[in-house]
Amino acid sequence: MSRPPLLLLLLLLPAARCPAPAATPRLRLSFPELRARHGLRLFQLERSCCYEALLLDEERSRLFVGAKNHLLSLSLDNISQRDRKIYWPAPVEWREECNWAGKDITADCMNFVKILHAYNRTHLYACGTGAFHPTCAFVEVGQHTEDHVFKLDARRAEDGKGKSPYDPRHAAASVLVGEELYSGVATDLMGRDFTIFRSMGSRPSVRTEQHDSRWLNEPKFVDVFWVPESENPDDDKIYFFFRETAVERQQGLGKASVSRIGQICRNDVGGQRSLVNKWTTFLKARLVCAVPGTDGADTHFDELRDVFLLQTRDKRNPLVYAAFSTSSSIFQGSAVCVYTMADIRRAFLGPFAHKEGPNYQWVPYQARVPYPRPGMCPSRTFGTFSSTKDFPDEVIQFARHHPLMYNPVLPHGQRPLFLQAGVPHTFTRIAVDRVAAADGHYDVLFIGTDVGTVLKVVSAPQQSWHGMEPLLLEELQVFQDASPIASLQLSSKRQQLYAGSATAVAQLPLHRCGAYGKACAECCLARDPYCAWDGTACTRFVPSTKRRSRRQDVRNGDPNLLCSEGAWGRGARCRARSGETTDAGCRPAEPSQGRVPQRQLYGVEGSSAFLECVPRSLRARVAWTYQRGPDAPQREVQPDERVVRTERGLLLRSVQRHDAGLYVCRATEQGFTQPVLRLALGVLSAAAPGGRAPWYRDFLQLLERPEAACGRMR
Ligand SMILES: *[C@@H]1O[C@H](CO)[C@@H](O)[C@H](O)[C@H]1NC(C)=O
Ligand SMILES: *[C@@H]1O[C@H](CO)[C@@H](O)[C@H](O)[C@H]1NC(C)=O
User: How many whole angstroms separate alpha carbon 351 and alpha carbon 366?
Assistant: First the structure.
């Protein structure tokens, strides 16, 4: 099934690009750099941890946070500012019980806040593990920002069973719809009885059938969303995302993990004679995120990690972005797949999976399906039933035995939008921002990893390779200690990203346009839809500003078109498509020589010299030219046994007198070449008085590993 990562990468790499594997970001920014220069802000609370629940409240300008024994109310503009907090520990009796049950009193017998929802105009609803005694409470936050209310009445706490997990290591997923809470969670101390559960509100609670592995089989819930299906609220559905142990695999193949999407109707109140207070509209389908293999053996990203619903203008059709990793020990990788609601609905309207008996295969159910079709909500839109209690017995029986759909939900484009393999991290969280750029809308992905980094990815249309090309713009180390990103929230309005981990909460702007460089070409090559060249600097692109004064080209990232003098003046059009080399007549005017930094360097005859040149973009390819004197021809430096190219520059072993001259380092990216540095090398005679110059340093030590010349890799 699984194939080695290298092979996979080779299959997926756009052949014309080199050396830019999917794992190389254009910019990699470290934690100290982000803190010092790019507005990274942190929040930490003494004697707490585990900032797992983040709730964004734009109206009150607050970021509400659930952590160990605490609830926090932070300013969305600056989370480092003085906070308001609520101490919410588990009562001593519960902690003692927890300890008697064999749990660690200092580590586990605490109240880990896992659930945080906006309840009404004045209150939040929060749930925590309560030392293996789940508990929930209303939190008063006031109607307005100015109210400065942040209060929890612990005496009025409610039972949190079926809402919060018992175990701090477990996750729960839930959504509040009106006054009702839909949750996917373990409802027992041992973490064995899993349920999809509706509680609160005025209707009786409804849950999934207990101890029936066809319904749920050791599920891990990831997310829950409410999506309307028509104008009629009776058709509203709740979608659960989870992963579980596959039931549809043949015996003997071991435990296989599958990712799922489950659905229930919002107006499901259970059956009348059977399935009383159990869902009658529960269905689930397999969610596939895989790379098709040439031999039909697909590489599966089978472990769903996180889901982000990107709202579009049509409330019924959000885009579903999902992050996956692999459960395989042979093949390790992560991927992002996108699903449309149309494809999801199609799977639920397709054939039901059916198994005649223990020794039979799973097949599509061929016989007559009772009416109304299981999974349909009782509503005037599609039928005549007004309640699930009116459903015929035949329908209820069919629903009980056929919760699984035969057809899986395939991703948009039949393949992942972005994937990484053979890298030392996996994806844990995802948030998506739809950004208006000069040439259309782009979805920018922010992907949290298990090593405290956030990847910023944009998918741009590409000419040569399957339509879309993911661009890894930035790799950002937002936590000092490489702890996994446990929660991720994004504010388009404020252009800020918020991340939580075991150790801290972090806040970071969505863009750092200036970090791409000080030249138009650098700004343009970055292809960051948030950024544009304004004539003097790379700055935030705002679509409403005057169009002519801004330079941006996310689609092609072509500086020839945007940054040459012609583009600013009388429109001399000179176009080079990415991947092609610019022919001489079409080369844009190089920036005036004064703007390219120039350095003087001396080497000693017979020893080595290192010409360092690291372009800002990690995706650029470096080439060197050499010129003996002002009138001598310029020629390209060819590596040989004496001249070695390294990742950081050019190493001349045993410098000779004739090596003296002008070296120019040029960076090429997407067919666009720009000079980065001019180095004048002088060669000193080894036989100078006093022998070796005292400042001499053998640069051989700097040589880490010679870079394989790009051309040879093709
Ligand atoms: C954010 O708040 C912290 C703590 O009050 C303060 O030191 C810092 O200057 C603030 N940053 C900004 C940009 O306001
Ligand atoms: C919000 O809900 C809380 C808890 O039920 C209640 O006390 C409060 O009055 C409600 N507020 C509004 C504005 O309805």
Answer: 8
